[in-house]
Write a structure and sequence with these properties.
The complex is a heterodimer of chains A (about 475) and B (about 300). Chain A is of the alpha+beta class. Chain A has three domains: about 30-230, no CATH class; about 240-330, no CATH class; about 365-480, Immunoglobulin-like (Sandwich). Chain A is about 45% helix and about 20% strand. Chain B contains eleven helices and five strands. Classes of the chains: A alpha+beta (about 475), B mainly alpha (about 300). The interface of A and B includes residues 6, 14, 17, 381 and 382 of A.
Amino acid sequence: MASPDDLTGEHGSLYAARKGVYPKKVDGPFRRFKWGIMAVTLAIYYGTPWIRWDRGPHAPDQAVLVDLANRRFYMFQIEIWPHEFYYVAGLLIMAGIGLFLVTSAVGRAWCGYACPQTVWTDLFQHVDRLVDGDRNAQIRLANAPWTAEKIVKRTLKYAVYLTVAFWTGGAWIMYFADAPTLTHDFWTGQAAPVAYVTVAVLTATTFVLGGFLREQVCIYMCPWPRIQTAMMDEKSLLVTYKDWRGEPRASVKKAEKDPGVFGDCVDCNQCVAVCPTGIDIREGPQIGCITCALCIDACDSVMAQVGRPRGLIDYCTLDDAATEKAGGVAPPIRKTLFRPRTLLYFGLWGAIGLAMLFTLGQRTRLDLAVQHERSPLYVQLSDGAIRNNYTLKLRNMELRPRMIEVTLSGLPGARLWIEGGAREAAQQSLRMSLAPDRVTSARLFIVAPGAGPARQEFTIAVRALDDDPRGDSETIQFDRPGTEP
Amino acid sequence: MADHKRIDEVTGTHTSGHEWDGIEELDTPMPRWWLWSLYATIVWGIVYVILYPAWPMIHGATEGVLGWSSRGQLEQEMQADTARRAPVMNAIAATSIADLPAKPELMQAAVQGGAAAFRVHCVQCHGAGGAGVKKLYPSLTDDDWLWGGDLATIEYTITHGIRNPDHKATRTSQMPAFGRDGILEPTQIADVVSFVRTISHQEKRSASSARGAVLFEANCAVCHGPTGNGGREVGAPKLNDAIWLYGGDRASITATVTQPRNGVMPRWNSRLDPGTIKMLAAYVYSLGGGEKAPAPALAAAAAEGLGADGQP
């Protein structure tokens, strides 16, 4: 309980100034792994729009392209039309379940290694070390008065920040237009205003989020740490300080004086010094820990120097921690990785992926939509026949022009023609060519004898006249006098 | 409540003193950048209120120093759009209506522009989509035309209207009121009606229709043609088809012969510019009943008083 003094005394400020974080340079397997992931993710981000992919003369040759102006999404061999947006929804669901899977298996691995905020923060912290020096030099410079040297260093650092931020924003827009053309247009001032605005906004957010807010984003802004605390269980991997082995802490000298009293932790504070979010892992699991494992590298190198076994700070589940604390031996890691929960997530994730692949392979690339015009429902013609008008929409989703045939069935004596044709030449079917990767709209006229039911259902079918005979059909009605309400 | 205030042992943070069934609230200090963000939004709000319309007053809102208004913005956008459409509109205005179909893009633009103008000026009588209104206004979507259904003829009809007494070039004709003015006796009218219903295949031949044929030849054929094929130069409808503007049953035809309708359409050259009229004509033409322009010889014959089918 608090002392009476706490209750009556100074309550403290409602607002806390940010404590500076100056992570120390560290090396080790996890740091090298992080370098690798950073290289791969940045290469994917910057490089993807520049991959070329030949789709023939009727479509862009950029492998990954979100063509908002023409409402197409290209991803290598796959082309998504707006009405197929559920594939994107499926990808998002897969991404969600993928995060569940990763979190339940290896904890906040996304936060620690692959999250853009983490990758860019890492990048900016590396810039700090390049310009200002390592942790101690950074702290000295932060506390130093504004001398000429500090001004020069700060200017240089912010200039590098701004350059990185600008390239980040600049790379983003490449996903939305042909990258080489857009690059040329951008630098010659011919790109669309939205391109400049997007680059400006993303440059600003990258500059602020990566250069200054950093771990504040993880702790205060991001909902994901909160969700993850609910996703984790006793079998999720956590970066854990094994307090049963480390406590009580003492320096090497002190421990040599009193053998058998102290734990392995030499209280060197290296785990705190290298932490990119500025926490002390020895206080236990906490929301500020993104499980980047840099403290494991730092601690392992210190343990090696003082000749003690590695892993005082290590990836460990809550269950394993309890087992080790009680003197037992933790089961091998595959037992925690492969358990019903992770297998279920994986099964669900894989099933959605397979289902999407299956439907992708099955989808027809020729699509028909017919709309019956309602004003008027029917037209009385002078020879007694009745004409109905329809709006015909034919989607040719292939990247080549196609000849197609539209056929009527179930409407005896009917003839059809489209705008520009004539009733005299009308047949029961008509042929037309469709432009590649486009919706062709046409006004469709259908004439049928005046004698017949007031409302008659019939079928309009479309098929391609080439090697792929798959098509589409729609059942719609033909109205004659007497259908008015 | 205040006596519940304490320092939380796990986090070392003050509690706010609020407690619900043992659940307490930590009074964690906000980060200071959050506070500055809040101040920034307040400043932004003040600037916005100064620049843009904001405070509601009794007659409208404060205007803001930028003078922006949504109406003004709409006006600008409309002007910009008019400027954007100007090249196409000028091209349509410069193209003769008969040449429009040869330029598919212009024709398409004209049809779309005509559809918009139709919704404003024409739907009141001719209905949405040009369906017409039974017994009042003709359908524009069928293949039966009173005055002709090619582009130039439609344009002329829209430009000059039908039976506008104040306008010389208007299309005009007058069917005599055979019943009201006593030109035909009621029994004779009944015979004529029988004949008309025979040529439109609604009735079988009878003694009455035979008598009517003679009367038709004498009174009606001059305009409607000997076979009831109609006469477009005077807007006389075709009587031997299935389309009846004012109704094809015995009572309706009798009423028409007794007291003709002589429908009126306003001329639009006093209200619309020639370009809009051209677009309207293109739209009406596109509704499904548009006809090819008659060959020049036939057109000349029509001008001399012959029917469009070349028969006197």
